[in-house]
Structures are given as C-alpha cells and as structure tokens.
Amino acid sequence: MNIDHEFPQQPELCYLNHAAVAPWPQRTLEAVTRFAQENVLMGATHYPRWLETERRLRKRLAKLINANGPNDIALAKNTSEALSIVAYGIQWSTGDEVIISNEEFPSNRIVWESLNTKGVKTRIVDIKQTNPEQAILDAITPKTKLVSISSVQYASGRRIDLTLLGNALNRRNILFCIDAIQSLGAIPFDCQACCADIVVADGHKWMLGPEGIALLYVRPSLRRTLQLNQFGWHMVKNRGDYDRQDWEVADDATCFECGSPNMLGIHALEASLSLLEALGMDQVFDQLQKNISKLIAQLKDLPGVYLISPEHPERRAGIVTFGVQGFDATHLQRQLMENHVICAARGGGVRLSPHFYTNETTITRAVEQLRKIISPAKN
Ligand SMILES: Cc1ncc(COP(=O)(O)O)c(C=O)c1O
User: Fold this and answer.
1) Closest Cα to atom 7, ligand 1: which residue?
2) Which residues pair with 30 in a beta bridge?
3) Under CATH, what is the fold of the domain 27-278?
4) Choices 3.40.50.720, 3.90.1150.10, 1.10.3720.10, 3.40.50.300: CATH for 4-16+280-378
C-alpha cells in the first residue's frame, strides 16, 4: 500500500515529534473538510450518518485494543479526563493504595494523588532499572487496590511488558489501569492478553488524530460497578426520548458520556484510524522499529551522544531520548527546532519520535542537523 500521499509534510521539515502531537494524514484533512462543508451547507441534516461514523470509530478503537466490541468503548475529552472518570468512579476505602511509577506523565500521577482526600495513598515505584515489572510487583502490599502505568513512558520511552505485569496483577486481584497514549497506534495492543481493567489514550499522538478525543475502555464487569459523576441526556438507556421522565444509566460504555459528542474530533480520528487499520498494526510497528533502529545507530555515531532511552527492542517503542555531553538539552532542542527538526525536550534530554511513515532521508537530515550543532568546527 503506497501511503506517500498521506503525509505531504513541508519538505524541509523533519517531523520527529509524534510522542507530542502528530501531523494528520491527508485523509483526515479530507474527512474534516467534508464534514465542515456539510455543516456549512446542510447543518446536521444527515446526523444519522454522523452517528454511523461515531459507531465506526468505536469499532476501530475496539479492534485496535482487542476489546470485545464497540459497546465497550467510551469517548472522552482526553486521557486526563478518562483517568479522572475512573479514579472518581472506584469505591475506595481509607488506606487503599495505588501504585504508579516514577516516570509517569503528570496526568497519571496527579489524579491518583488527588485521592488522598479520600484516604488513598499513592506509592511511586522506581522503574529506572532492568526489571520494572518486578519492581512494581515487589511494591504491592495487602492494601494495593490498583496499579496505573503508562505502556510506554513519555520521557524515557521505556516500554512495559503489559502481559507479564497484567497477568501477575490479575492473579493478585489488583486492578490494572493502562495509560496507552504512547503506544496505541505505534505498537500492537491487546487489552485481553494483558488483563487490562482500564485503558485510556487521547488520539493526537501515534493514532494521528486531533487533540480532544480520547479512548476510555473499562472492563465491562468493572464498568457496571463504577460510580458515575457526570450526568446528562446522552448517558441513559433511552437516549433521544426527550419527553421521558424516568431514566436508567446506559448498559454500554456511553454511560461515561454525559452530553453531545465531539463530532468533529470523531470524524477526524475515525479517518486517521482507518489508515492504521488498512496497514495493520504489525506492519506499522515493524516499520517504526526499523526507523528507531536507524535513528539509534546514527545517533550513536555522533561524538558525545548518550542514550537516555532503553536500547533493547523489547524495552522501546517510538521514542528515542538522548543527551550530548557538554550540551544543555533544552538549548539543543531549541536549536534543532530552529533547523526544522521538530522534537521535544523531555526527561533531561532531547526526545525524537518518528512514526512508521518517516523516511530515511528525514532521519538522516535530522541527525545531520544535530551533528552540525554539536560539532560546528567540522562544517
Ligand atoms: C503518558 C501520557 N499520558 C497523558 C498525556 C496527555 O494527556 P491528555 O490526553 O489528558 O492531554 C501525555 C501527553 O504527553 C502522555 O505522554
């Protein structure tokens, strides 16, 4: 499948920032343009068709994480909101403990720490070591109720063995919550194989969608026990029967969606995911791994460069964070940006994150720009 036309990025741009906010594919531009034109010309005349797109999005998301089906997929505003829905839906007892890692993005820390008003303690485990899963398992106490971890850490790029960890937690009857934003759309994901109770991820990184539309998956039997904290016309069984006075909470995952959906975001993300689905996640992952290997090899050729990200293929996904001896990472990142290498300063280094479609020329040019910055005498 030729996908070159899907990424007509400006030729001078080396876009290596998919771990922050990704560019959209061409088909997403077209879907959004069509949707905008339709809104201008006809308003919501064809709303039932929009609902079909919404359904297709839920199906694609269900397929992406291997959930049972679209009824188990809720759409939230973002990862943080999805985590908050879950954290404030669980019935906690004073003394309960949540385990997170010391590499989490603030979304997956602050929400758990906020539960201290309910007597819940958040324990932070150091995973900067060879066996992060064991470090988490070793931190479990009889009070541990939930472990929440990013499938891939946003700064180091460290990838967690979700199947190993999830099965071990399942055996201990501990809830497993996964912030999958740094892996969904980059690497294959199976919520059943890893015994996930909760999976959350916004669409604007590896899924190539816009900001503001996120996946929230909660294992159905857990979903039914969560307390709801947002209410409205959309989260009930007889949605659309506005005259009806009695109401019951919807059986499916729309119970978490209180009001009007983000139809614009739905149209965009549905289009983006159609591309990943057409390619297949195995191919996407394979291509991304090749790009990461090339990037690492070229970086290691430069004087003074050291990797902050784990190098082992099983410990990495789409993120390569590095430092350069004698250079301030923030300054370096700014200089790279000035030279059209789009990247981020994270975790004490410069974070590069290509995607599957990134071509070799882009990688080579980015590394060449870096070489010019760190060894200018040789230019
Ligand atoms: C691991 C992780 N979680 C969450 C987020 C963002 O959360 P939200 O979708 O609420 O903006 C990021 C963004 O960088 C992230 O890397």
Assistant:
1) 79
2) none
3) Aspartate Aminotransferase; domain 2 (3.40.640)
4) 3.90.1150.10
